[in-house]
Amino acid sequence: MTQTAAIFLSAYRELSARRLFWLALVINVLVVALFATLGINEQGISFLGWTFDSPFFNSNTTSPETFYKSLFVTLGVDWWLGLIATLLALVTTCGIIPDLVAPGSIDLLLAKPIGRARLFLTKYASGLLFAALQVSVFSLASFAAIGLRGGVWEWGLFLAVPIVTFFYSLLYCICALAGMLTKSSVASLILTLLAWTVIFSVNLSESIVVAGRIANTLETAAIERELVAGVTKDGSEPLDEEELETLRTDLQRAKDNRVDWDRAFFWFHGIKTFVPKTGDTLELLDRWLLASASMPTRDPDSERGPQRAFGPRRVKRGEYERALKDEERSRSIVWVLGTSAAFEAGILLLATVVFVRRDY
Amino acid sequence: MNNAVVGGALAVDVDGVRKTYGRRIRALQGVALHVAHGEIFGLLGPNGAGKSTLVKVLMTLVRADEARGSVLGQPVGSSAALESIGYLPEHHRFPPFLTGRQAVEFSGAMSKVDRPTRKRRAAELLERVGLGSWMDRKLGSYSKGMKQRAGLAAALVNDPRLVVLDEPTDGVDPVGRREIRDLLVEMRSEGRTVLLNSHLLSEVEGICDRVGILVQGRLAAQGTIEELTASSRRYEIVIAGDVPEWCGTDTRVERIPSGMLQSVGITGAATRLLFLGLDAHGAQPLLDRLRAEGRIVISVQTVRESLEDLFLRAVTDPSTGLILKPGAAR
Known about the structure:
The complex is a heterodimer.
Chain A: H1 2-16, H2 19-37, E1 38-40, E2 44-47, E3 50-53, H3 64-93, H4 96-100, H5 106-110, H6 116-127, H7 129-150, H8 160-182, H9 185-229, H10 241-274, H11 278-290, H12 317-330, H13 333-357
Antiparallel strand pairs in A: 1-2, 2-3
Helix pairs in contact in A: 1-6, 2-3, 2-7, 3-7, 3-8, 3-11, 6-13, 7-8, 8-9, 8-11, 8-13, 9-10, 9-12, 11-13
Chain B: E1 10-21, E2 25-36, E3 40-44, H1 51-58, E4 66-71, E5 74-75, H2 79-83, E6 85-88, H3 100-110, H4 115-128, H5 144-156, E7 162-166, H6 174-189, E8 193-197, H7 201-207, E9 210-215, E10 218-223, H8 225-229, E11 234-240, E12 261-267, E13 270-276, H9 280-292, E14 297-303, H10 307-314
Parallel strand pairs in B: 3-8, 3-9, 6-7, 7-8
Antiparallel strand pairs in B: 1-2, 1-4, 4-5, 9-10, 11-13, 11-14, 12-13
């Protein structure tokens, strides 16, 4: 325990000696201060005394509580913590493992009565300290801002601390392995960013395939409903033979496409199972914080047609988006976190084996 | 002193240490190293001889292909032994963001020293190595010599029974070197064992009880300097005047036994005679003879090889008479 505490204390001292650490903390507070200056009233969104009219976002459609929680999740977590702060954290911590294995530095540690695996994993965990501290400060500031501005003291915001730290660890384990193999901060940072791009691409591709597959399902069901009803869309008059033939052709095409979507889903979902689910992990916060919130929804009758790539033509946009959200939220937390944790464990195992077996 | 590990008769008692890097570089070829408790042992050798690899094997930085024996009575690399060892590596790199005090305390914490003890010892040791007024400044602002002193303090924070020092005076000024040498002698008087890896022969010669010379991954010699240079002990007699006839080439004069006279040197009005394999008793007839001839004996002294001579002899290929190339055997 003494050794673990010493490594963490040393990691904190190392982080606090870096300007980027303090810069990131200041930006954290500024980001929260920025969305604390935003408000919501009956006309729309207010900002430093100005009001921007919005029929979609106003206090009649969205409660202040939901508005601020939504800001916290979408702007704060998804954009700030999930992207910019993560980049800053990677830049700050990418040198931790290369510094650990640098000649002259590793000698001082391995000559101590501590197991190599424990030393490596503790050092790795200390690297997560940056992310954990940043998210903690951000969550605390957001908690205060939402409490004061929205009138709600939402303890659930602190879920961001474990979730975002876990999200960061999915990338940092790659950084640690790369640092172990290359012994270079720059190389490990570049390799991590490359890996993140690949992970993002896999996740994005899978979500596109899922969206297409859902669209296909909804489209098929809509055509079948129209065929069974045998009337026009507005139900005023029966379909003629030409219209019926068009529907039958569309149905057949949709069913043919279904095979392709299923095959694509099989592959992309299969591949995604083995990579960390960075997006889905952050999405958990959205799921837990906003699931019960009264978020504004589009008028289900307002639009229909291909609003998104592969979107269904015969299904209302609201219905399609609800189906997508339902699919997103139906994903098992065990699958999201479990497979991601398994990936992280695999990468860490590899890095630990390299660290343990190497001569210094 | 940390008595967690009592150990056997020897502080370091290892045999058959082998290490090959890749398939070709044989860094250590069955080295046997025996260091007694409470002595200062100097490990010498040319560059690439395997000194650092041997030290790193003992400190678990390098995994030996084969290593039998013990360190402080525990298997090589065991955690229990490491708790009682203080180590200062060559070219060590303490985190520059730590102060001297923090670095020493960190070293203590990693050696499982409790908080009050490591705080107290950190302050004491930093004073002892002359960094009392610098202990709360960042290591990044230290000179190389100061870092070396801080490293020594860090190596001693766990009150070790065995101190392994790799080039401890590297980058230290002459005054600092003297202080470090004094510190090593103090360590010995405190009962600690010191394994000193250094290329400064004068430093080793001055303070080491025993030395080992590694050459191409093999221990070419191991013992006290006295033992290792015994075969080269000579008697030097300096007399006034010319070379005696019986030391010359005149075959009509009865000469001293062949091989006894190693060399004759003439400097100004004096002649220096070097006799091999003589002890004080054996020298008396020669002195009697010189006196009988009326020669003035200016001085008589025992001369032996310096550590440098011994070192050079160890690194010389006896078959060719040439100094072996530096580096490991391939």
